[in-house]
Known about the structure:
mainly alpha; elongated; 5 helices
Amino acid sequence: MLNAVAVTTVVVFxxxxxxxFAIAVFVNPIMYRIPGDAGVAARSDGARVLGRVMPFWYxxxxxxxxxxxxxxxxxxxxxxxxxxxxxxxVSVVMxxxxxVPINNRSIxxxxxxxxxxxxxxxxxWDRYHYVRVGVIALGFALSAVGLLLI
Length: 150
């Protein structure tokens, strides 16, 4: 059971990191370069779609990581899965406090028009997102090493 939970956790966690990395490095920079209102509309639509999916993915990944920590408590890798859980929890808190408010505003940009400071808001979101990607990448690395040591 522990091995199945560990493998599932690493796969789900890895996909989460991959998607968030792709958004940071490829998707948002591409949308930022789309001229006129089309780029704003694309970013707004991305915020809407991913804003529905990502909370479940983050909470699901956190649940798997915590389950792995509980099942493996006392093993040599427990500190790694606990660290991964804490880092993932930090990213969830960070998301709720820093990224979600900007994301919720940006969802309305396609319908209501972007505010004059939309680029500053987008840049702020991107900076917070880079930090979040770093936090979850470190958590993923801990869980991947933990899997190797089982």
